[in-house]
């Protein structure tokens, strides 16, 4: 019985991922046709597309996750970072994710309430909160990574390794550029 439930759940997840891909393709086509000026996207178009891609991919990941809980994109990002970098400070993570202290506190409290993250005072500076994932948090983080891998492996098959690597470099460079404004 458990095996059939797991298979059913996995099939549902695959179906949601496939449905999202179709929906995203339609939305991307709409963006392509409505945002170009003289065949070239404007700066505003690029930011609009990037926002749509981020929201769409986070929705896709969130919809593919097991369980009924639906966490915000920020909460999922926090969970992934904390799982990857145990003990990271809440303040440092806020700077990485470009979120103010109040927004971070609310998202971390939601993760704590869901039993996904633990927050402890730093041993040297009690004002600093160090974050760690719980077992439940590690499990959810693994499911997030699995969904991301499905998205990225499909994109990699479509684009190829060189284009994927260039895209990653471009996004990292754009992120560095944005960081220059927050100093």
* Poorly predicted ranges: 1-26
SSE class: mainly alpha
Biggest sheet statistics: 2 strands, antiparallel
Give me the Rg, rounded.
Answer: 19 Å
Number of helices: 7
Rounded to the nearest angstrom, the distance between the terminal CA atoms is: 56 Å
User: Number of DSSP strands?
Assistant: 4
Element order: H for helix, E for strand: HEEHHHHEEHH
Query: Considering DSSP H and I runs of 4 or more, what fraction of the residues is helical?
Result: over 70%
Strand order of the largest sheet: 1-2
Report strand %: 5-15%
**Principal-axis shape:** globular
Average residue-wise pLDDT? 81
How is the quaternary structure best described? Answer: single chain
What does this structure look like?
The protein has a domain at 1-64. The model is unreliable at 1-26 (pLDDT under 50). Strand 1 and strand 2 form a beta hairpin. Helix 1 packs antiparallel against helix 2, helix 3 crosses helix 6 and helix 6 (135-159) crosses helix 7 (161-179). The protein has a two-stranded antiparallel sheet with strand order 1-2. Strands 3-4 form a two-stranded antiparallel ribbon. It has seven helices and four strands. Helices cover 73% and strands 8% of the residues. It has helices spanning 2-35, 43-64, 73-84, 90-97, 101-113, 135-159, 161-179; strands spanning 36-37, 40-41, 117-121, 129-133. It is mainly alpha-helical and 183 residues long.
């Amino acid at each position: 019985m458990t095996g059939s439930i797991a298979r059913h759940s996995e099939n549902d997840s695959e179906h949601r991922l496939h449905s999202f891909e179709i929906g995203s393709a339609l939305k991307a086509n709409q963006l392509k046709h409505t945002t170009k000026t003289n065949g070239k996207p404007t700066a505003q178009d690029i930011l609009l597309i990037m926002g749509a891609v981020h929201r769409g991919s986070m929705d896709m990941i969130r919809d593919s996750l097991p369980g009924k809980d639906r966490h915000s994109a920020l909460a999922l990002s926090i969970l992934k970072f904390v799982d990857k970098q145990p003990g990271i400070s809440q303040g440092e993570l806020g700077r990485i994710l470009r979120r103010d202290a109040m927004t971070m506190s609310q998202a971390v409290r939601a993760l704590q309430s869901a039993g996904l993250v633990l927050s402890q005072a730093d041993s040297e500076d009690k004002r600093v909160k160090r974050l760690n994932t719980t077992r439940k948090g590690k499990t959810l983080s693994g499911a997030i990574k699995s969904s991301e891998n499905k998205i990225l492996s499909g994109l990699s098959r479509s684009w190829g390794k060189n284009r994927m690597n260039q895209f990653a470099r471009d996004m990292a460079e754009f992120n560095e550029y944005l960081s220059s404004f927050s100093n």
